[in-house]
Structure formats: C-alpha cells, structure tokens
Amino acid sequence: MKLALVGKNISHSLSPKLQKEIWKDQLVTYDLIDVSDISELPSLDELALKYDGINITTPYKEAYVKEVRIVSDLGKMIGAINTISLKDKTATNTDILATEKILSDFYRNNSLLEVHLLGSGVMARMTELIAKKLKIPFHQYSRATHGDLTNFDLKNLDHNALVINACSRSFTFKGDISSQVIFWDFNYSFDPHRYLAQKVKAYFDGQELLWEQAKFAALFWQGKN
C-alpha cells in the first residue's frame, strides 16, 4: 500500500506510525503532504498516480467532497470526509466511525451521560449527529453563540457530564471546570490541556480516537467496511 495524509501543519502527525503498525511490511509509504493553502491542493488524479489511498485532515476535509462517492451517510450529511480510496474515488469519514464507537462506550458505562460540546466546526457537527443517533442529551457551546470559550464556566456540571473539545489546536480551554466531569479532547498530545488531568475526574486526549480512525481507514482501503 502507498498512502498519504493531506493537511496543513501536519509534521506532528502520528498517522504514519499508526498505519505502519497496522500494515507492517505491506505499507510501502505513508507520506505527509503539507499544503499551506487550499489553492495548492493536488488533484485526486495527481494523487492517484502515486498513492492507493489518502487521509485528509484539517482544514481540507470538505475539499474533495464533490469529486468522490461518499459511502458514509453521516459523512454525506456533514459534507466532510477524511479517507479516500484513489482506486475508485470512494470516500468515507472514519472520524464518524471512531467517535461513535468511543462515545457508545462512554454511554454504555453511564446511561445518564450528557455531552457538553465545545466548538461548531466539522468535528462538532459530526459529534452532534452521533449524539442524536445514540439519543444522548447534549449541549453545544460555540463562539458564535457564547463568545470566546477560552474562559467559559463549566464548574457547575455534575458527574454525568462528558465535556468534548471539538475545537482546533489553536484553542485552549482555561475556564473553571467541575472536578466531577470527564473531559475528552479530540486533539492529541496537546500540551496546553495536560493540566486538566489534575482538575477533572478523567482526561482523555485524542490518541484513542486517532488509533480507531486509522484502523477504520485501513479496513476501508481493504474494502471491508
């Protein structure tokens, strides 16, 4: 397999390491294609000359939507994809599959779970749809409706609250927060949020999400999902 990740400022990405663990000797290459502006994105035809499949990350998850056949219903609804097979230009969104799996696990462990969602971008829209599908109550906070979320007050949440940070790495939460909550950060290896591990009941960063995404992507490229 010859694979690549397309995104912006992705030198920190763990995806090459994860795909190497999955594919082992079958992986010929997993390149990082760092593109500073959407006008410079390579076409799918160009990419297909070199790769079997690609992953796409922020801010380009909506860039190729009109050029592929999306096999994920929720992917169609949010208009964003992160995995393309260049053999037949089919696409899916493994963010959705991974998030639904992990959120289902949280819900299985607490049937009174309530999601408190920070953000309004693609990942937030996706999480909202998954929460609705799973019938989990949720509350969403965005800059458009609540102003700057940096110092947002979450100190009155109870032990059923799952706070999900769906904002980009440019955002850092510094507000008051209840010690009873679980904080799930979609970003991984994000140093500005490491302090939360000492303030909340449990802090999870995005590494498990990334790992599940990688496994679902590999299955997709193998034609198994």
Structure keywords:
Rossmann fold; alpha/beta; five-stranded parallel beta sheet; six-stranded mixed beta sheet; 225 residues
Protein topology:
Blueprint lengths: L1 E6 L7 H9 L5 E6 L9 H5 L4 E4 L12 E2 L2 H6 L4 E3 L4 E3 L1 H16 L4 E5 L3 H13 L3 E4 L1 H4 L14 E5 L16 E4 L16 E3 L2 H15 L4
Parallel strand pairs: 1-2, 1-3, 4-6, 7-8, 7-9, 9-10, 10-11
Antiparallel strand pairs: 3-5, 5-6
Task: Characterize the structure shown.
- With 225 residues, the protein is α/β, with parallel strands linked by helices.
- It folds into two domains: 2-92 and 210-221, Leucine Dehydrogenase, chain A, domain 1 (Rossmann fold, 3-Layer(aba) Sandwich), CATH 3.40.50; 96-205, Rossmann fold (3-Layer(aba) Sandwich), CATH 3.40.50.
- Helix content is 30%, strand content 20%.
- It has helices at residues 15-23, 44-48, 73-78, 94-109, 122-134, 143-146, 207-221, and strands spanning 2-7, 29-34, 53-56, 69-70, 83-85, 90-92, 114-118, 138-141, 161-165, 182-185, 202-204.
- Strands 2-1-3-5-6-4 form a six-stranded mixed sheet.
- Strand 1 (2-7), helix 1 and strand 2 form a beta-alpha-beta unit.
- Helix 1 crosses helix 7 and helix 4 crosses helix 7 (207-221).
- The chain is globular and about 55 Å long.
- 36% of the residues are buried.
